Amino acid sequence: MNSHAKRRQPQAEDAAPLTVLVVGEDTETRPLPDSPFIKAGCAVVRMTNPAMLPAICAKHRPQVAFVPLTIGGEPAQSVLRAAMAPQRLPVVVVLAENEEINAAAEAMREGAYDCLFRPFSDARLAKTIDGALGQVRRSGRPVARPAPPPAKAPLVRPDPAPLQIEAEGIVAVAPETRKALSRIEAVARSSAPVLFTGEVGTGKSRLARLLHDRSPRADAPFVVLDCATLSRPALAAEAEDADGALARAAQGTLFLDNLAAADPSIQPHLTGLIDRASGSGIRLVAALRQPEPGAGGLRPEIYYRLSVASVALPPLRQRIEDIAALVPAHLSACAEREGRAVLSLDPDAMARLAAHTWPGNLHELLNLLWHLTLTHDGPSVTAQDLAPSLPDGAGVDRAGGVAPIATGQTLAEIERAAIEAAIRAAHGSIPRAAQMLDVSPSTIYRKRDAWRKDD
């Protein structure tokens, strides 16, 4: 297939324009016209044949790629992996349909910079392009009208003013959150393994990425390995194959997510992968729900290998001060993403949020704000508007214990109640409910099918 590049007229003070590669058929990339890229000072190269990726990269040397999850009706995982291979493309943005949320999440775990869910607004596209340019600047690649990259500000300022790290979408007002960020600052420049601990939805993955971005390895790969999905053959492939996790994480960071969910039968082999990664100069970062050896069936030797430094992340119910800063920031982001007006919450509604116990932590709060943006009529949200989504007395108490369970319930009944509560908190989204419960979506679908047969 032929490719073509469209460039603006360079000005005297410009550096060579940054090149953006747009992959896919015309029908798949129609929402990506040349104009926003040209306005940002970029050259645009379009490619319809995925097999041409190596040749296009060699000829045009693009620094950014926009790649659909599906090309010509076929999954594009191989194209994405090739695009995200070391020394190929530093920044990859994924284009996805709403029903492709699981594949999009997998692409993000493997190193994609961002994901655009169709349909998206012009403002959302422009913001993504701007963010991609910023990422390339931080990697040291030349861009049009280059400016020296800003010095990284300390994660935590000595003053008590609310801290917002807007590039990473992190807000830290509560002392517990600021303590966690101080800990990240302290260990970022080390090569020591780091273990993030905290409940589901507390932001372990996001802060693991922040640790990488603040480290001397920031320009090297950040590779995610989901331990919950690993079989023994898959683990062997990740350790041995040329495109496995160890190869892709060379000189960078390997993040072991859902560590305690690893099948016990593969844990001895996982220990071997950890040792090989440590011996080859890869930094290891991991996420665990409980900060103790043997938690969740995890072998103690794995825990001790990874807990050289640890960062404990508080649940949202213990960092209520952050909610007042999180809400306006994420309502604004949701409005921009969906092309809708920015909502505000009245004082009673904010008090209702502060009183809720947030069993789903940040996932639950952010999904609620997204739901309100999509469904609420009018500029202001009241406490009464929140009542259907925040039932009184649900979830976990402030001290961190589980809310009382009615006596006389069987284990199956308790499990069903927990799953149904998570689905309600996720506003009907099975993938998001699965995230809250730290299980795969297929587990919830299978349980629901069984319940329907029994009802």
Automatic annotation (TrEMBL):
InterPro entries named in the record: AAA+_ATPase, AAA_lid_NorR, CheY-like_superfamily, Homeodomain-like_sf, HTH_Fis, P-loop_NTPase, Sig_transdc_resp-reg_receiver, Sigma_54_int
Domain of life: Bacteria
SUPFAM superfamilies: CheY-like, Homeodomain-like, P-loop containing nucleoside triphosphate hydrolases
GO molecular function: ATP binding; sequence-specific DNA binding
Keyword Transcription regulation in annotation: yes
Record Pfam families: AAA_lid_14, HTH_8, Sigma54_activat
GO biological process entries: phosphorelay signal transduction system; regulation of DNA-templated transcription
Comp. bias (Pro residues): 145-158
Gene3D superfamilies recorded: 1.10.8.60, 3.40.50.2300, Homeodomain-like, P-loop containing nucleotide triphosphate hydrolases
Domain Response regulatory residues, every copy: 19-133
Region (Disordered): 137-158
Domain Sigma-54 factor interaction: 170-374
Residues passing through the membrane, by range: none
Alphabetized UniProt keyword annotations: ATP-binding, Nucleotide-binding, Transcription, Transcription regulation, Two-component regulatory system
Keyword field contains Protein biosynthesis: no
Protein name: Sigma-54-dependent Fis family transcriptional regulator
Species, as recorded: Maritimibacter fusiformis
Taxon lineage: Bacteria, Pseudomonadati, Pseudomonadota, Alphaproteobacteria, Rhodobacterales
